[in-house]
Specification:
4-stranded mixed β-sheet; Glutathione S-transferase Yfyf (Class Pi), Chain A, domain 2; alpha+beta; 2 domains; Glutaredoxin; Glutathione S-transferase family protein; globular; single chain
Length: 212
């Protein structure tokens, strides 16, 4: 199997992807992008993702951007890890639903809420309304312990990371069901390893900036 090249910036959305790579036991080459220094807007990285966003991966001839797509691709690439229901598994549809729901509905809703702006008219809004998004997610997790019941998938790594930072920034309410879920996911060793590595990289970047 070709090695994966993973483009990552510490303490960003791509941190969850790094957790996923660790959970999958994947071999990968890491390309660190210093977003505080603006490296995501330089031609070298814009050739990878013209939007200047992370995460992104290269695997052989395949270049994959967009967070949900990266998770789906990686989890399918390592079926033995058991983090993606197979195509003929009844859980495959719900797994795809909740992975895509994050980028198509949840992120637009929380960004609008963070910026204190109203959603688009209902006929145009990609998510309807903020309260419905939060209630839909909370109702699903009440059936837990994971999004798909007793089975943990790559979608839970995505959502565990996402709820951790959105609750931390105050754009998602810290409902008991969310708190239990975040605690369950972030207690996994892979989350702790990534947090430690991200902190070390950030400190290294700050030291380098101080010497410049």
């Amino acid at each position: 199997m070709s090695r994966i090249t993973f483009y990552h910036s510490p303490r960003t959305r791509s941190s969850g992807t790094l957790v996923l790579l660790e959970e999958l036991g994947a071999d990968y080459d890491l390309e660190l992008i210093n977003m505080k220094a603006g490296e995501q807007r330089q031609p070298a990285y814009l050739a990878i993702n013209p939007l200047g966003k992370v995460p992104a991966i290269r695997h052989g001839d395949a270049l994959v951007t967009e967070q949900g797509a990266v998770y789906l691709y990686l989890a399918d690439l390592f079926p033995r890890a058991g983090l993606a229901p197979a195509l003929d598994d009844p859980l495959r549809g719900p797994y795809l639903r909740w992975t895509v729901f994050y980028g198509s509905s949840f992120e637009p809703a929380v960004v609008d809420r963070a910026l204190k702006r109203d959603p688009a008219p209902s006929a145009m809004s990609p998510y309807g309304d903020y309260d419905s998004v939060i209630r839909t997610l909370a109702d699903q997790l009440e059936e837990g312990p994971y999004l798909l019941g007793n089975r943990m998938t790559a979608a839970d790594i995505l959502w565990g990371s996402a709820l951790n930072w959105t609750i931390g920034f105050g754009v998602v309410p810290n409902l008991p069901v969310f708190q239990r879920y975040v605690e369950r996911m972030t207690a996994r060793p892979a989350f702790a390893r990534v947090a430690e590595r991200d902190a070390a990289w950030v400190a290294e970047h700050e030291r380098a900036a101080g010497k410049a």
